[in-house]
Amino acid sequence: MDSDMIVRGIGMAAALVAATMLTRFLPFVLFPPGKKTPPFMEYLGRTLPYATMGLLVVYCLKDVSLAGSSHGLPEMIAVAVIVVLHWWKGNSLLSIGAGTVIYMIMVQRVFV
Amino acid sequence: MKNKKRAALRYAFPKTVPVMVGYLFLGTAYGILMKVNGFGFFWVLAMSLFVYAGSLQYVGVTLLAGMVHPMYGFLMGLMINARHLFYGISMLGKYRDLKRFKPYLIFALTDETFSVLCSEKVPPHLDREWVYLWISLLNQIYWLAGSVTGCVLGGMITFDTKGLDFALTALFVMIFTDQWKGNKDHGPAIGGVVSSVVCLLVFGSDSFIVPAMVLILVILGFRYKRSLREEAQKVGQ
């Protein structure tokens, strides 16, 4: 690795740090504790966690193709197992563990 | 004093186990990827320590190896991490009165840490700030440990790990279910899923996040307006 590559690498790393920190700190900088948070922001603070978790689930499954060889079945089955198990037992580790193991078995053994 | 920390750790650790599985695995994969592209131990350590954003770090491998302009990396980073703005807004209330660890807690608010903390109701006998700190810190340690391991071990791993990364998807699905059970108003959750799916179909998987965020804000804006009207009617009666 020559010095030019190191300098460019550090520049890129700094850019990625700056972008990430901007998105993480901005809300806290705009709405500091001393100032009254606008009511709409408070409303968003209450409702966004639910909407965002929906976005995250879709984000994780974004590359699943229904037209692909497995038709998205491993994902659908694993998600269904997690929802049902969690609804029924409410044990986080059980739901996640069982869902992940079932998914792994399906992608390694069933839909190869 | 010591007991306070230890009690908080004992409470926090089990909550982080799913993240541990996912981060060790995805972190290791990241370390291997970096190594293969010519970026060794110190690069991996620095990225996982200071950037600490899973999906951006993955994209970052290509950006580093491709030697593109840092400005492009910055804009790419803003796009990919725009969803963190939502995490911050969601945590404004919870993090409001924190003192010592607040800067670190904001810094360390990844997808996974956010999902563990956003629905976390710390029992009153525990120190809230310490519980938040342990959860955030343990998660970053898992990520660091995973990525450094990957970079050191390289291609020596033979165990068939295909599908193990699903642990993080499972975490999000579990929390989504948990939130659904614990809340009567399902509007925001449905709004989030529907907006994301619609934008995914329209804009494709590489660029749907920002439009989905805008759509979510529009929907929540309408619901906010409606709730104000309903309240005004109640007062009027």
Would you give an account of this structure?
The complex is a heterodimer of chains A (112) and B (237). Chain A has 112 residues and is mainly alpha-helical. Chain A has a domain at 64-112. Chain A has 4 helices and no strands. Chain A is flat. The longest helix of chain B has 35 residues, at 2-36. With 237 residues, chain B is mostly helical. Helix content of chain B is 78%, strand content 0%. Chain B has 2 domains: 2-183, no CATH class; 186-237. The model of chain B has no long low-confidence stretch (mean pLDDT 90). The radius of gyration of chain B is 20 Å and the shape is globular. In chain B, helix 1 crosses helix 9 (166-181), helix 2 packs antiparallel against helix 8 (128-153) and helix 10 (187-203) runs antiparallel to helix 11 (209-236). The chains are: A mainly alpha (112), B mainly alpha (237). Chains A and B meet through helix 1, helix 2, helix 3 and helix 4 of A and helix 1, helix 2, helix 3, helix 4 and helix 5 of B.
Short description:
Chain A is mainly alpha-helical and 112 residues long. Chain A has a domain at 64-112. Chain A has four helices and no strands.
| Strand coverage percent of chain B | under 5%
Based on CA atoms alone, the radius of gyration of chain A comes out at: 21 Å
Measured distance between first and last alpha carbons of chain A:
39 Å
Please state the average pLDDT score of chain B: 90
Helix segment tally of chain A? 4
- Compute the average pLDDT of chain A: 91
Query: The biggest beta sheet of chain B, please?
Result: none
The structural class of chain B is mainly alpha
Secondary-structure topology with pairs:
The complex is a heterodimer of chains A (112) and B (237).
Chain A: H1 3-30, H2 39-60, H3 73-88, H4 92-110
Helix pairs in contact in A: 3-4
Chain B: H1 2-36, H2 41-51, H3 54-66, H4 70-81, H5 83-95, H6 102-107, H7 111-118, H8 128-153, H9 166-181, H10 187-203, H11 209-236
Helix pairs in contact in B: 1-3, 1-8, 1-9, 2-8, 3-4, 7-8, 10-11
